[in-house]
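FORM 12-B: Structure-to-Sequence Request
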């Protein structure tokens, strides 16, 4: 009976760890994207390289997590740029503003030994996706957030 209780406790601890990790990563990304959107920074980001934007997003996520997310836990951060028509019509036609799809993989180590024995590795990954666009130019794309997906690594 004792092994069953210990196994159940380990599973409960791991489920709590997974839930907190997912929430922590989603909240950090969401706060960072919101700061970029509401801070009036988006028009200036049109000329910024993807590498500079990636660095800014990483730093923003780490700052938003208040030390609960370490740089090594952000396993990957990918940025895809898409042109969307802007809301301001220029004399030559509509102005095109970029929109970015930000994909972040957060890697979190398991707390107990049980998943390492069963799965064979020591961590899981959760993928977060968020659209970063001008809310005045494309409100639907700015408000859209794709659901995440989890996999073990």
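FORM 12-B RESPONSE
SEQUENCE OUT:
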């Amino acid at each position: 009976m004792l092994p069953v209780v210990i196994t159940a406790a380990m599973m409960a601890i791991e489920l709590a760890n997974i839930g907190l990790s997912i929430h922590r990563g989603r909240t950090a990304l969401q706060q960072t994207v919101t700061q970029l959107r509401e801070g009036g920074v988006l028009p200036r980001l049109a000329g910024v390289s993807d590498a500079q934007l990636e660095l800014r997003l990483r730093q923003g996520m780490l700052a938003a997590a208040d030390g609960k997310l370490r740089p090594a836990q952000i396993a990957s951060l990918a940025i895809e740029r898409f042109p969307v028509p802007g809301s301001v019509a220029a004399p030559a036609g509509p102005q095109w503003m970029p929109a970015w799809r930000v994909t972040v993989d957060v890697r979190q180590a398991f707390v107990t030994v049980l998943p390492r024995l069963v799965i064979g590795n020591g961590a899981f990954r959760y993928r977060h996706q968020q659209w970063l666009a001008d809310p005045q130019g494309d409100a639907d794309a700015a408000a859209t957030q794709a659901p995440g997906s989890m996999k073990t690594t």
